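Notes from hallway chat w/ T.B., transcribed later so I don't forget. T.B. wanted the structure written out for a chain they're using in a teaching module, and asked if we could keep both sequence and structure tokens in one place. Agreed to drop them here.
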Amino acid sequence: MLFSLLNRHPDILLATDSDEFSWLNEIIWREFYRHLLFHEQRLCKHQAFKEKYRTTVWHNDKEKFMAWCKGKTGYPLVDAAMLQLNQTGRMHNRLRMVVASFLTKHLLIDWRWGEKYFMQHLIDGDLASNNGGRQWAASTGCDAQPYFRIFNPIRQSERFDPNGEFIRKYIPELNSIPDKHIHFPHQYIANHQLSLYWEPIVDHKEARINALAFYK
């Protein structure tokens, strides 16, 4: 329907970097995931879209999962996003991708655990979009990101929250941390003998190597 509308009215085509395009793009993704759910009803039964991932044995560390849920992973952007979800029931789409990727790629925890937690807390929770988005991040879904694409939560933070405004809003303990250290403040905290923030539950470089081996 949306594509038909655009074909009939080419004058409404939008610049790809505009807010209007982003909004329309998200609607198209929503319709795509609903289309999948209708034609692949097994997705309602907690099954991975890609056959080769159906028997995956996830690590499913419950302590790390709870740290992710509570926003205590030691990665400020991930933690701020989860705290926002817990406090408001909302989360920006970029952050949904970051935290979902962290859960499945850094922690190697079943995407279905994240899917369930999101549906329990999102005020705009939608079965099709939630399932599709979690499987997209986990590389188990249709048209998903490839397994070797692993979001770096520090780089994502530097790119999308360069001054740490979002981080400080939900993690006020980090208010005194300079901007250049806000994205991963552990060395700064140690150098100044501060006790402000929890230690990271995984090392990014090591987690990335483990994830690549796990998916292969």
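Follow-up for T.B.: The mean pLDDT is 90. Might be a good example for the class.
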